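Q: How would the structure tokens look for this protein?
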Amino acid sequence: MDLIDKLFFNQVLVFCLFEEELVWLKELAADLDRELTGKGITGVHRQVLKHCVLCMMEIELSDSLLRLREAYPDKLPALPEAMSEEGFQETERYTLEFFQGMVLAAASLSHQSDTQLVIEITNALLEKYREAPATVRFRLVDRMFAFEFMPAPIDCFTWLAKMGVLDSSKHPGVGLKSRYQPEFLQRLALMCEFDLHRDHNWRTARLDVLASSGLHVIAKETPQESRDLLLQQEIKRMEVLSKPELNHRIPGVDLGELENPASIQRFFTHLNTYALRFRFFQGSLASWTGMMCGGGVEILHRLQDRKRPIYADEFNEGSLTQLISEGMSARGFEITARTIYERHRDFKETVLAMITTYYQLLLFQGVAPPPNIIDMTHHGLALRFDRFKPKLRRPPRQRA
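A: Here is the predicted structure in token form.
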């Protein structure tokens, strides 16, 4: 569910809030496809190369953490006395180069990728995208995945249910129909691997575990649920650091086994050992499909040229909620247009409000921090997710 939450978050961010950024993502997708097609790259090798180039670009296009001082001049702690700014930046550069080496090594050893070709395509594209907004450059891999695979959250839910990873009594995997293509699963698995590399690099580079966790500065008014989750994250990291069999090993997945339930269940069991996320939507498994449908309505509403009604009660044919309901039915999910309409209102008051705040903070900062550290904006905002709640609604009137 952490993975689905991440996909849902990026889907909403990209298609509900990005404007200028969408132009950059569209151009990058076209530039990447032109480079790969010109070199005759096809099949799974094409997806591996595309993913690796995006990883290398995300690392190379990031800004120094010191840039955050421009946005928060009085908030950031001072550097240690023995370290100059130049020394700090050299350390950052070394860490990022090591991170790039991890990406290339994994691509070569696990997926037989041509690392020289990855570097060649990356260098061909870098200069153009140095001028891209920080909101594009930061977490570029995640944003591009959302842009290329718009139905990613519901497709991922379908896949995990069919593989037996999600045990949903309301939507059992045996009754669901897959509408995704092989390249979706390939890129999704590669993105999960990259997150593991990102987490490994962050975990092993931290000098002061307590200070970097945020546990020592949590305000008293922070909800207990958020405190508990932050503590769970640190317990997981400490457990991994203290066990050589975990700390010196990064789980991978065979891209030829993505429809094999045993292989996928094993991979997600390993994934759960390392990762824990503050979810933007913290509802039950049964409530997730309704919230994703609510988000889908808002995305269609913002993207359409000819404005269709969202919901029209008795005359709902052709509305956005009806369109989403029919699309879900084609995938094996049964959810009424009326239910989707109600979840759409909840979505706007909770998840969309949170992600809008997140986006506004990114715009204010104007910085793309290094990709080998946690998303500090998400992390900080997550501690106050309890402030975003749907309004109480009157029950619908009963017809005579």
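The two ends are 42 Å apart (CA to CA).

Confidence is low (pLDDT under 50) at residues 209-213.

Upvote if useful.
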